Amino acid sequence: MKTKLILSILFSILVSIVGGVGIEMVTGFNAEIVTGVLFASSFIPMPSGMTMAGVYREVWTEQVKNELSTQEQGSFLDGIEDFSRYVNPVGDEAEAIHSTFMGVRPDVLINNTTYPIPIQELDGEDMVITLDKYQTKVTPVTDDELYALAYDKIAAVKGQHAKAIAAAKIKKALHAIAPADGAGDMPVLVTTGPDDGTGRLRLVWEDLVRLKAALDEKEVPELGRRLVLSTDHVNDLLLLDQKFKDQFFNATTGKPYNQLSFDFYSYIGAPYYNPATGTKLSYGAVPAATDRRASTFFSLERVAKASGMIKMYFQEAKTDPQNQRNLVNFRHNYIVMPTREEARGAIVSANAV
Question: Which residues of 239-269 are buried (b: 16+ CB within 10 A; e: fewer)?
Answer without folding.
Answer: ebeeeeeeebbeeeeeebeeebebebbbbeb
